[in-house]
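Please check what follows.
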Amino acid sequence: MAILDILRNPKKKCDKLAKLKKHEEALECYNKALELNPKDEKAWYNKGWVLNQLSKHEDALKCYDEALKLNPEDEKAWYNKGWLLSEIGGNDEALQCYDKAIELNPKYSESWNNKGLLLSKIEKYEEAIICYNKALDVDPKSGEYWYNEANALYRLGNFEKALKCYEKALDLIPEFEYAWEGKGNVLKELEEYERAIECYNRSLELNNDSERSLAKKSLALCNLERYDEALECLDKILEINPESEYTWHMKGNLFQKLEKYEQALKCYNKALELDSDFEEALEAKKKLESKIRE
């Protein structure tokens, strides 16, 4: 890009390249713009965003820090710095960044939501729910926020409330694959297996290759003693991912239920071939071998 173009309208030129996902060209453009004006906070912020897209996380953090030196009141820079830190494992500092963004704008729903996600990640679910509620106070029509709150409630074992939140998410986003799966999980815990299977089927209509939905559907079918259908789900997963040691273990368990012990043993051996330290498969194999000897 010619230096004259940047002089005419540096922000417009660089931002256009970033929007077009021409990240390397955008980076070069922001570098030139910052040579001309090293106190351009927006250029530092946008350069950080581009570097993040290029997975150059440490360099991106430095850019956000430069932007915040120039304007410590930039809530978006605090938010993006928090998001990046949470992605690379800097959880405590990320929480501080989200708090700073919220301090600057108490109605910053994205910061409330992301703070909730981070708290959920470190298993502080009660605190996470407070954050999701704050986000929903600002934006009650966000299916994503309802879904995130449902997940936290599910983790706490509050299945009735979780179910209502999943349903709210689906009212807002009917094609929300993960919310259908989540609703199915809750119904399975409530032992409403037929309804759970209906939800997993909706999830699979949206993503036929969802290994998680297939596995959960298999478990629900087992609870209804519909073992042939459950086995079909596991075989479908293994078509998609033949190296899923957990699925081989599940298949072994299913064969045990059917008293097909030799086939079960082969499945446990396959799981252990893929992961020799898979404790559940090791234990299941030992118990099965003991049963066969008897």
User: Anything to note?
Assistant: Residues 227 and 254 are 7 Å apart (CA to CA). The chain has a mean pLDDT of 93. The chain has 18 helices and no strands.
